[in-house]
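Hi support team,

I submitted a single chain yesterday and got back a structure, but I'm not sure I'm reading the token output correctly. Could someone confirm the output below corresponds to the sequence I sent? I've pasted both exactly as they appear in my results page.

Thanks,
R.
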Amino acid sequence: MKQSETLVRVRYKDTDQMGVVYYANYFVWFEVGRTDFLREFGMSYKDLEQNELFLPVIEAYCKYKNPARYDDPLKVITRLQFLQEVRLGFQYEIVHADSGERLAQGETAHAFVNKAGKPVVLRKQNPFLCRILKDQVQEKEI
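Hi R., thanks for writing in. Yes, this is the structure output for that exact sequence:
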């Protein structure tokens, strides 16, 4: 299964009063990783939306292992976890880019919907993207 790697750096505004990254920022970095993953395989979120295909988050999970702190360089590793007719899911791992220490791991699930928010079948709405994603997922469920 292929993966995408994105580098981010913890900004001061990302930390809380205890000097560690505020928990919700991990979900922001998941989005950055997911966006880069799609871009690396030939389709940006902007392209999807111009083709009236949207990917709202319908589930999200994060397990925090070790804290990230201000100015830490982080690597967001993103993998496509599953692909179904009207859904797809991603796995994420956030590691300290210098030490390799695992900081967090998580998952998100998304629905394929049109501009009106109605579910659409990916292979009918965007066969090109469907083929690309099928090649990236280990268990081809679609």
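A quick pointer for reading it: The chain has one domain: 3-136. Let us know if anything else looks off.

Best,
Support desk
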